[in-house]
Prior knowledge:
By secondary structure, the protein is an alpha/beta fold. The chain is built from nine helices and 14 strands.
Amino acid sequence: MKYDRTYNFSAGPAMMPEEVLEEIRDEMLNYRGTGMCVMEMSHRSKAFLAIYEEAVADLKKLMNIPDNYKILFVQGGGTMEFAMVPMNLMKNGVACYVETGTWSKKAIAEAKKFGEVNVVASSKDKDYTYIPDCSNLDIPENADYVYICENETINGITYQQLPNTKGHVLVSDQSSMFLSRPCNVEDYGLIWAGVQKNVGPAGMAVVIIREDLLREDIGPKAPVYCNYNTHAANDSMYNTPNCWAIYCVGKVFKYLLKNGGVEAMEKKNIEKAAVLYDYLDQSKLFKASAEAGSRSLMNVTFRTGDDEMDAKFVKEAKAAGFDNLKGHRSIGGLRASIYNAMPKEGVEALVAFMKKFEAENE
Ligand SMILES: *Cc1c(COP(=O)(O)O)cnc(C)c1O
């Protein structure tokens, strides 16, 4: 890597492509002859509107988003979406959630404030190390939607197959897998993703929502900001948007288009994850936490089974240039987040380091 940077395995905010950071650096003081930085620019200016419009158009191209879906940039990160989804989509006041780990549990807790929540499948029995069978869920007829967290960032598990929603609207939190592989947008009513995991800086979520789910009136006490329709009707500029994040994610969208799109990312991500999982499966010291059929390509969770050994590994890895390998504080263990921007060499170097560590700690 150039610039003496570290291999950063953080779950988020996380690595961004160096080429994108270089472009941002080059445009920092004078964005394309405007005489100002994008941070200093009115969101109503011609230059910024072009940034916004290109970001929307490029994302549409990248994900093949049909015309009857709106792309929204909403502030408040991922956590805001836990509330906005039920506020906007619970027409009958009933929803189904699949419980697969920390982030789906948070979504469930928030949704309960707004209506009846049915947990229709769960992998709690095995500490959220697998995705439960969702082929025949017990979904009430009047359920407004079925909600999943498609990649559980903390637990390191991901869906191989979407749930059978039996005709109900599917809502997916794609935060930690957004643009890591192709997805058929038409399978969903709403996809949302906090962008600081795989696409940009913190403080914003991308929401892709089917137009028929937008409602002008979501109740007299709902904050105007929390209605998706507010953002849809005002090109995400009802108020001052997160201009900086929109600019940065737009750059990443262009970078992805230039480098083969999500199909190329998927291929690269499968190869990268295999380097790590193959090693974990034959290691005597480290053990992968997730079950083989549910393993995430983005967040690889593992442990030695000894907290002191885990801590020693994190410390020595950091000294060797591999940062942020500690598992989330809520579940412990170890985790390597290997999003789009993590080069394959980074994963290979990590595995080489792990082999050395294993040999030294037999
Ligand atoms: C990080 C994360 C969130 C929460 O995002 P914030 O922007 O920190 O609120 C929600 N869901 C998933 C899957 C995440 O990885």
